[in-house]
Amino acid sequence: MLEGDWFTVQQIDESTYAISELGHWEKVHSFLLLGTTKAALIDTGLGIGNMKRMTDQLTTLPIDVITTHVHSDHIGSHGEYTRIFVHEDEESWLINGIVGLSLEQIRANTARDITIPTPKSFNPDTYIPFTGKPTGLLKDGDVLDLGNRKLIVYHTPGHSPGHISIFDETKGYLFTGDLLYDETPVYAFYPTTNPIDLVNSLERITKIPNVTMIYGSHNSLGINPDILKEVKEAVIYLREHDLVKFGTGIHPFKRFSVQF
Ligand SMILES: [Zn+2]
Ligand SMILES: [Zn+2]
């Protein structure tokens, strides 16, 4: 564990770290993946603490920030980095601001239910989510090469239009962002979400071969990939019972749930 007032750094293996915000109700995880020529940082958290101070202690490699999706709990420290990548369908959200959520809602969500002291630099009353131009755009099937490590981009919309999952082909890690995590419902119940897309995306990730571990962006750090079998059954159940539409509520399965 690394010294950090706000972040908890957990080492997954010799070249992979989770940088987590466990003092916040959302229990957000960002992930630093080291290669030989560069590093990838999957998301940058809530923006309550300075993430670059943490990644500077973990690597001297140049860092490409990969955005799973443009929600405020995933882009918080984007402004601390120079190379930022986002799916093409959320380029405009990154530049112009997140669609469908007011600044008041975002501030209230960011500032509530915090159980540890926040850095002095954080002020919930003036907090503004990052906006800026990305360095480059991502699309389905893109391969990010870190030297000895290849990351494959899967466009997995539903929770948001440009949501991506990232498969670390070398290690077998599947980073699922807000498409799949445990403990609290996966959100697809507000206007910028799409239940049909979400279920299609869930089905799609069940077909990725050789997954050794799943890393969602919230709650448990690391989910056994046998959850994909449960996801597969859930997809069938939701479709057969005509539940894949707004307003059908929370659908609990054994280890995860979705809310439409
Ligand atoms: Zn989200
Ligand atoms: Zn999230």
Description of the molecule:
The protein has 260 residues and is of the alpha/beta class. 18% of the residues lie in helices and 25% in strands. The protein is built from five helices and 15 strands. The chain has helices at 51-58, 91-96, 103-111, 195-205, 227-240, and strands at residues 8-13, 16-21, 28-34, 39-42, 63-66, 84-87, 136-138, 143-145, 150-155, 164-168, 173-177, 186-187, 213-216, 250-252, 257-259. A seven-stranded mixed sheet has the order 1-2-3-4-5-6-7, with helices on one face. A hairpin with an 8-residue loop joins β9 and β10. The protein is globular and about 50 Å long. It binds zinc ion (2 copies). Residues 71, 73-74, 178, 217-218 line the site of one zinc ion (ZN).
| Residues in helix, % | 10-25%
The strands making up the biggest β-sheet line up spatially as 1-2-3-4-5-6-7
Distance between the termini: 37 Å
Which ligands accompany this protein? zinc ion
Net shape = globular
Q: Strand pairing plus helix content: what structural class?
A: alpha/beta
Average pLDDT metric: 96
Q: What oligomerization state is this entry in?
A: single chain
**Sheet with the most strands, sense and barrel status:** 7 strands, mixed
Beta-strand content bin: 25-35%
Radius of gyration: 17 Å
Please tally the helical runs, counting DSSP H or I stretches of 4 or more residues: 5
What sequence of helices (H) and strands (E) makes up the elements? EEEEHEEHHEEEEEEHEHEE
Structure summary, number of beta strands: 15
As residue ranges, the low-confidence spans are none
